[in-house]
Amino acid sequence: MSKLEQLLQELCPDGVEYLTIKDIAKDIYRGTGIKRDQVTAKGIPCVRYGEIYTTYGIWFEQCVSHTFLEYIKSPKYFEHGDILFAITGEKVEDIAKSTVYVGYEKCLAGGDIVVVKHNQNPKYISYALSTSDARKQKSAGKVKSKVVHSSVSAIEVLRIPLPPLEVQREIVRILDNFTELTAELTAELTARKKQYEYYRDLLLAFDANTRFERLGNTCYMKSGKAVSSVKISVEPSEHTPYKCFGGNGVRGFVADASHYGEFPIIGRQGALCGNVNYATGNFYATEHAVVVESKGAYLQRFLYYLLISMNLNQYKSQGAQPGLAVGNLENLIAPVPSLDVQKSIVSILDRFDALCNDLTIGLPAEIEARQKQYEYYRDKLLAFEEAG
Q: Which residue in 23, 85, 104, 315 is deepest, having the highest Cβ count within 10 Å?
């Protein structure tokens, strides 16, 4: 019998009580808006809601952002053990993603963050809020649109199992072991990707002996057409089989394709504009995606790697809605090596790319397998027989 089984038999033989966040919370409140231009390198640590989706996992010890107190009119703080929920997002299935702060500095919570204070094991609560069941509760009744919202009242009614603290600690120990193994593999993959990016940039750094041209002289660049968000599905299906590319990459899947072939695609709208994807076969490009086609000077696959290396995001416009104008992209100067040189570089970079990103081989495949294993055991460990 495992230690967890012994604890469950000893401490909760008749099942585990299920409680709502409102039942557990000592206090629950929203943060205060922190604008992008108010983020600083030093000052008070802070979290903006988007970072909960992009930067933080089940728990975190340090904030990646800081600000100055004079920028914030009504500061809202969070401390060790507090749970943070992001109540604005782009996907129904990800809305109200949560993380727990296990550091010891006093930090500021940004707007569209809900802070929950409690007396339970913080990591346990965070794990319980990440299960498939909890995510279903978070997304229940939400409507797919460009922006998805949750609220304090929706957070308060989330229901999770709450065993005794000894049981919570043992579950955290087990799940931390899973996440630690995955984190080690992810760190190794990150190092490999940095190595790949170094060699990619080295291969694509050409001297004055190479011909340089405006991209507008060597490529066709054209934005796609708008598509109604209600026609975009999250997952591919028999009725929506084609990838739909927008400003930040793949937006979802649609019924009809606008293009066929192999093309680099540049996202041209939003903070992440300048991202470059590679589309093959049938696909749809929205008005926020620029489809790039060589006029003969480039191999399409080489053009993809070249555009990535140019860090196009640096050319975005400033303002509330950053963007990349097609005319500005066409005016960028780029090297045009011979097709033989391009073919050789593509061969090398394709192998590197597969080692770093292909989910069927090497580290990416192992990380994917471990993540699925972790999610399976997490959901299994946190599915208790309910008391009463």
A: 85
- The backbone torsions φ and ψ at residue 364, rounded to the nearest 5 degrees and listed phi first, read -55, -40
> CB atoms < 10 A from the CB of 258, how many?
18
Architecture of domain 19-162 in this structure: Alpha-Beta Complex (3.90)
328 to 64, 90, 204, 323: CA distances (angstroms) = 32, 28, 21, 11
**What is the C-alpha separation between 173 and 168, in angstroms, rounded?**
9
Topology of domain 207-336, CATH: Adenine-n6-DNA-methyltransferase TaqI; Chain A, domain 2 (3.90.220)
pTM of the model: 0.69
Between helix 3-11 and helix 165-203 the angle, nearest 10°, is 140
Q: What distance in Å separates the CA atoms of residue 321 and residue 323, rounded to the nearest whole number? A: 6
Q: Which two tokens stand for residue 11?
A: 């401490």
DSSP lists the bridge partners of residue 289 as 267
Q: Count CB neighbours of 44 within 10 A.
A: 20
pLDDT per position as a tens digit, 256-298: 999 999 999 999 988 778 999 999 999 999 999 999 999 999 9
The answer to whether the Cα torsion of 198, 200, 201, 205 is positive or negative is: positive
Produce one character per residue of 7-27: b if its CB has 16 or more CB atoms within 10 Å, e if not: bbeeebeeebeeeebeebbee
Taking the C-alpha atoms of residue 344 and residue 353, their distance in angstroms, rounded to an integer, is: 14
Work out the mean pLDDT of the chain and round it to a whole number.
90
Give 83-127 pLDDT, tens digit per residue.
Answer: 999 999 888 888 999 999 999 999 999 999 999 999 999 999 999
